[in-house]
Design goal:
By secondary structure, the protein is an alpha+beta fold. It has helices at 4-15, 20-27, 31-40, 61-70, 76-85, 92-102, 167-181, 210-219, 235-249, 257-272, 284-291, 399-414; strands spanning 122-133, 141-151, 157-162, 187-190, 197-200, 206-208, 222-225, 307-312, 318-321, 324-327, 336-341, 345-350, 353-359, 367-368.
């Protein structure tokens, strides 16, 4: 079938009196085709209905409809497994589209309602796992955790990568985030991670980690646990993880954890927080400028929660805390010491006396040795002790004495 424009041209040239051969040459088509269109005139083409093709899912549509009528919330993945057991050989996308068309109105999971908060009212905290190979250790894959806190009103992001999800990491990150914000939100929403939530009591009330409770009391914020198995309740911090992974992390080259955090800090300052937020429609930093005056003031005294541990000194004069090793002085007499672990320090006590204070190490199998703790005598500085033989020890004399005795003995033999 030729295009309508070609048909109109053929009929117009025919009305002008051109012969079929001339029309065929001008239109670039066969003369038989020209005669056919002249004979048919300007009638719209007639197309027959396309016959539907059989689909592999057609035999299972009745089963899917019956299941969805009885259980509207069944997922397409679940139904795929069921009809596969009944002989279905097609793919998932066909099942997904059919389930979407067959599902009764109101069935399945309802839409989430977006919950906005007032300035300074709430922040959300969570950890996300990342796998990374540092150029300092080629071929070794490390698992690192991103601690992220997002202010609910402005969507300002603060985060830090760490090797583990320890309480020391949680305390240090909260402290650093509050200092970066210049204030504290009135409420912080947490996932049910062990460093935040221990469990529930007999009445169903959430029981928070005691140290986190001390942190909240010191800074004046209220901790709140999100509902279990409801990630959408902390979507403000969940969604940025995908944004961070795709816009910053993927394809990046990092020397070590410090370099990763340095690049991440630069990305937050240059890309993430100056951007126009898709949900709020506002520039994040501009919204934060409005939110900052509404935050709670930082306390004058820094938070100093202490985790007390008893540790035994190894034969190398080191104590193990959190998978890392910290030195003690050579003069330490006791084998068992008390370790006080804070947000950024490790203090070691022998009885009531402080004998060592180390900066907290991140990661595992790292060693911190303070100056003067491992004093050893170098080989070249050691005094050589002559081997012991039976009898009395011969006193050491100058060589001149032995030379004089040799001359006298030689003179006596000559005489």
């Amino acid at each position: 079938m030729k295009k309508l424009g070609v048909l109109m041209m053929i009929l117009d040239l025919h009305r002008q009196g051109l012969k079929v051969a001339a029309i065929a040459r001008q239109a670039g088509i066969d003369r038989k085709t020209v005669r056919k269109y002249i004979a048919s005139g300007l009638e719209p083409p007639c197309y027959g209905p396309r016959q539907p093709r059989a689909r592999t899912i057609d035999k299972h549509v009745a089963y899917l409809r019956a299941r969805l009528v009885e259980y509207p919330g069944l997922t397409a993945q679940r139904l795929l497994r069921e009809i596969t057991a009944r002989g279905y050989t097609g793919g998932y996308s066909m099942v997904r589209d059919e389930v979407r068309a067959l599902r009764p109105p109101g069935g399945g999971k309802g839409f989430a309602v977006r919950f906005e908060t007032l300035p300074g009212e709430q922040a959300q905290v969570d950890f996300a796992q990342f796998r990374v190979s540092f150029t300092a250790e080629p071929g070794v894959v490390h698992i690192v955790w991103l601690f992220s806190i997002v202010l609910g009103y402005s969507r300002l992001i603060w985060g830090r990568f760490a090797h583990r999800q320890t309480m020391q990491t949680v305390l240090a990150c909260h402290k650093a985030a509050f200092e970066a914000f210049g204030g504290v939100p009135r409420q912080i929403l947490y996932d049910r991670m062990k460093t935040a939530v221990i469990g529930e009591d007999a009445d169903g009330q959430v029981v928070y980690n005691r140290t986190l409770g001390d942190l909240a009391h010191h800074y004046g914020f209220l901790p709140k646990a999100c509902r279990p198995y409801r990630p959408e309740t902390k979507g403000k911090v969940e969604r940025p993880f995908r944004y961070i992974r795709e816009d910053f992390f993927l394809g990046g080259v990092f020397r070590d954890l410090d370099d990763l955090n340095l690049q991440f800090k630069g990305w937050l300052g240059d890309v993430a927080n100056p951007r126009l937020h898709a949900t709020t429609g506002r520039v994040v930093n501009e919204a934060f400028a409005e939110e900052k005056p509404t935050l709670l003031l930082l306390p004058l005294i820094p938070f100093g929660a202490v985790l007390k541990l008893d540790r035994r000194i190894s034969c190398e004069g080191m104590v193990s805390v959190g998978g890392n090793y910290y030195s003690v002085p050579d003069a330490t007499r006791r084998r068992l010491v008390e370790v006080h672990s804070t947000a950024d320090e490790i203090k070691i006590f022998e009885g009531d006396q402080l004998i060592a204070c180390h900066p907290l190490l991140d990661g595992r199998r790292q060693r911190s040795t303070l100056p003067g703790h491992r004093q050893s005598i170098r080989h070249k500085d050691r005094v050589a002790i002559p081997p012991a033989f039976g009898g009395d020890l011969v006193p050491l004399r100058p060589l001149d004495v032995y030379e004089a005795v040799g001359r006298r003995l030689a003179a006596g033999v000559a005489a």
